[in-house]
Amino acid sequence: MRGFAQLLSGFLLEYVPRRRSLSENTAKSYRDSFAILLRWLADGRGIAPDDVRIEDLSRENVESFCLWLSDVRGVCAATVNVRLCALRSFASYVSFTEPAYLEWASALRAVEFSKSPSGEVEWLPVEAVNLIMESASSDAREHAMLGLLYDSGARVSEIANARRCDLRLDAPATIRLSGKGRKVRIVPLCDQVAGMASAYLAATAGAPDSPLFVNRSGKAIGRAGITYVLKKHVAAAHEADPLVVPPTTHPHALRHSKAVHLVEADVNIIYIRDFMGHSSVKTTEIYAKISSKSRQKAVEKAAANLIMGSAYGEEDKSAIMEWLRNLL
Fold first, then answer.
1. Angle subtended at Cα 251 by Cα 247 and Cα 257, rounded to the nearest 5 degrees
2. In the beta sheet, which residues pair with residue 174?
3. Are 163 and 211 contacting, i.e. CB atoms less than 8 angstroms apart?
4. CATH number of 4-109
């Protein structure tokens, strides 16, 4: 039976890049995750890298490692989940190649992903949204549902309550949404999403006043139904690229994502307020703060990349970082 070192080598050199065909960035993230874990085992548990056994990656140790990442290194929940994803994927690989470790693998895969702290707005980068839409593209109904949910910045209840007549697909395409306090707003749709909606309407029948999306019983789809569709395609997109797409999310995260993306595109904050249906611009300003934080993280990441194995001298690094900050 192979030990930890042999299994990790097979996982990183054979399974991840060849059998799973994951991207180079994801493969690098997996390698980094194990490098950090091995360093933690050495410093925190006194286990040298050459002495690590499969049993040392116990559920207790992995949970402690995740807490250390969050509490000591100060990384966000999303980054903790990226590290945990690598470990869980390794457990799946080991369970298939060495069935004797099935019980161990099951315990490790039971470690839960971190949740964003209360008050932290969850949103997805454009790349993640694209991967989710790509997963749903083979189903006209689900493709249109998720496309409208994101592109209109709608609340899940607004899409669930929408009628076929609320869609106007002649240029410029729009959707009419009934929001909080029975407020109605007309939201523009991009050509791509208008095409998704057009394809869906053409493939389905229904009176103009009938629900836009129905469930298997022919009744208007509910929040749970939309959430199920989203989670299904998020899981598929996460499988395709776990570094970009989180393991799970919720419909309101697409609304947050649209708002952040509008801010990042330098759209006027007053327009975004009206687009999102906010009663006060103060609510909309939250997304401007999020966008600023994401830009700052990009600068910090660039700094980390410069520091690790960089050919630049300290003076060069300082000049480059100053240039990056001026872009914010």
1. 85
2. 168, 188
3. yes
4. 1.10.150
Q: Report pLDDT for 318.
A: 55
So where are the chain's domains? Answer: 4-109, 126-265, 281-327
pTM of this prediction exceeds 0.70: no
Residue 121 banded pLDDT, cuts 50, 70, 90: confident
Res 265: pLDDT: 85
Residue length, the chain? 328
* Domain 126-265, CATH number (from 1.10.10.10, 2.40.50.180, 1.10.443.10, 3.40.710.10): 1.10.443.10
Identify any residues that bridge with 184 across adjacent strands, giving them in sequence order.
Answer: 178
Q: Tens of pLDDT along 169-221?
A: 998 999 999 876 678 999 999 999 999 999 999 999 999 999 999 999 999 99
Please report the pLDDT score of residue 21 as a whole number.
Answer: 67
Mean pLDDT of the chain: 85
Token readout for 13 is 């050199």
Q: Are 81 and 113 in contact (CB under 8 A)?
A: yes
| Extended strands (E) in 151-212 | 167-168, 174-178, 184-188
Q: Quick one: angle between helices 77-97 and 102-109, nearest 10?
A: 160
Query: Helix, strand, or coil here: 138?
Result: coil
Residue 319: C-alpha distances to residues 200, 297, 310 (Å): 53, 18, 14
**What gap in Å lies between CA 122 and CA 17, rounded to an integer?**
30
What single-letter amino acid sits at 188? P
